[in-house]
């Protein structure tokens, strides 16, 4: 947990700090001092405010979406991507595989659109 206060906004973890759209300048993104800026005609961007070491983690975020490649289909859980020898299949489509009931339930909102 990381507790900080920047630009009048308080966040409780580095992830929230990285994702907070309301932070304007001098935010901490995974330990690196960065600022969000607008580039006319191009959108928004992030830039470093000081030099960093090669290989230093600058930004980390959960993906908005991901899929399992055809090569790995059936060998990994479609929610957490954990590989197991035996993965139970979705009882409806018989294609999607999950490592357990928890992952299947968590994935259902997205999976139900493709499950037929």
TrEMBL record:
PANTHER family the UniProt entry points to: HISTONE-LYSINE N-METHYLTRANSFERASE SMYD, HISTONE-LYSINE N-METHYLTRANSFERASE SMYD3
Record's catalysed reaction(s): L-lysyl(4)-[histone H3] + 3 S-adenosyl-L-methionine = N(6),N(6),N(6)-trimethyl-L-lysyl(4)-[histone H3] + 3 S-adenosyl-L-homocysteine + 3 H(+)
One Pfam family in the UniProt entry: zf-MYND
Domain of life: Eukaryota
Protein name, entry field: [histone H3]-lysine(4) N-trimethyltransferase
Class in the EC hierarchy, top level: transferase
Domain (MYND-type) ranges: 77-115
EC number in record: 2.1.1.354
GO cellular component terms given for this protein: nucleus
UniProt key word Zinc: yes
């Amino acid at each position: 947990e990381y507790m900080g206060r920047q630009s009048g906004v308080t966040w409780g973890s580095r992830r929230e700090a990285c994702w907070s759209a309301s932070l304007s300048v001098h935010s901490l993104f995974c330990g690196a001092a960065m600022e969000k800026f607008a580039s006319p005609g191009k959108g928004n961007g992030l830039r470093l405010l000081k030099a960093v070491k090669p290989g230093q983690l600058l930004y980390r975020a959960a993906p908005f979406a991901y899929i399992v490649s055809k090569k790995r289909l059936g060998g990994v859980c479609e929610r957490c991507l954990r590989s197991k020898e035996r993965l139970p299949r979705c009882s409806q489509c018989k294609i999607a595989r999950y490592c357990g009931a928890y992952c299947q339930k968590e994935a259902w909102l997205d999976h139900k659109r493709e499950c037929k």
